[in-house]
Amino acid sequence: MNRYIKYTLAMLVLLAGFYQTGRAQNFGAKATLDKKSILIGEQTQLNLSIRFHAKDSIGFPKLADSIGKIQVVKFKADTAFDPGDKSIKTVTRHYTITVFDSGTYVIPSYVFKSPVGDLPTDTLNLDVKTVAVDTTKAFYDIKQPLIIKYTFWDWLRDNWKLIAGILAGLIVGGGSIFYLLKKPKKEVVVEEVKPDIPLHIQALQKLEEIKSKQLWQHDQVKQYYIELSDVVREYLEKRYTIQALEQTSEEIFASLRHMDIASEDRNLLRQLLVLSDMVKFAKEKPAAHENEKSMENAVTFIKDTQPHARPTDVNVKGDEAK
User: Fold this and answer.
1) Fold of 24-129
2) Collapsing DSSP states into helix, strand and coil, what is residue 106?
3) CA-CA distances (angstroms) from residue 294 to 212, 253, 263?
4) Tens digit of pLDDT for each residue in 230-289?
5) Contact assessment for residue 294 and residue 268, using Cβ atoms and an 8 Å cutoff
6) φ, ψ (nearest 5 deg) of residue 136
7) Among 247, 225, 220, 226, residue whose Cα is nearest residue 236
8) Residue 79 per-residue DSSP state
């Protein structure tokens, strides 16, 4: 009886090992470069991909905006299913990178978290070369500008449409002024001018509206991050005069690099925009506390970076009070 039990347990352990090995064989993580050698300032793509069972949860490695001297410009994600087995899929993230100094750079191994264990990628080498200068060729002096005679008639021939437009405008403008002067005057009704709502107040009101919808609480996480990031992007565009609604997150960070923003607020903004990209493009599913934290970060960032009254305005009011 004991021999039978031992034999059965041994067979179960062996079958479990075969099953786990079969699962592991379907997994694989790799890193590749579109070009392993580039010129200074040229861009190439770093591709991180993993093949795994679609029902499994995979932890993707998170890249910062730089890998040493290698700058990460932007990234996008692609998902593909195995043609022979739809239960297996491959997720690839394409990172556009560049370097502004020559040399050989090592891209480290990145580790994917999976049910069968950690899956590391190979390290990669990226060679960055300077532009070769041909020193055998002679240098030449800058040639003097070529003088071309240009007469009044030449100018008139090139600009007759402009002159005709100016004359027509003067005639129409003069006629309009004459008509307005002769036209009986009507009583002017002064409309009450409503004060403009400050930019940061508008943004905070929109955030409050999003909060009241309870989107993520009703499994509309993607819509929640779309609306949340749109409000922040619109605020950035009007506050700092950048094309935030059309730029990628990395382009926004680059546009704000020289703006007067505290490092703590930059970190809040980065957390919000990067997580929004992950939800919208990589199907990330944040935890409830991350959703709440994103809203808190948006509110804090807008309050901390709101436009303040100039000191001269305060002095004028103080003088009037005296």
Assistant:
1) Immunoglobulin-like (2.60.40)
2) strand
3) 15, 17, 17
4) 999 999 999 999 998 999 999 999 999 999 999 999 999 999 999 999 988 888 889 999
5) no
6) -80, -20
7) 247
8) E
* Dihedral, CA of residue 312, residue 313, residue 315 and residue 316, to nearest 10: 120
Enter the pTM of the model.
0.39
- Ordered by start, the domain boundaries in the chain are 24-129, 199-304
- Going by their DSSP bridges, the two strands 66-67 and 43-53 should be labelled as unpaired
As given in the structure block, the two tokens for residue 70 are: 């290698």
Provide the token pair at 223.
């819509």
Q: Which residues contact 237 (CB under 8 A, 6 or more apart)?
A: 243, 244, 245
Are 286 and 275 within 8 A, CB to CB? yes
CA geometry: angle at 259 spanning 256 and 261, to 5°? 95
Residue type (1 letter), 270: R
Report d(CA 305, CA 297) in Å as an integer.
Answer: 12
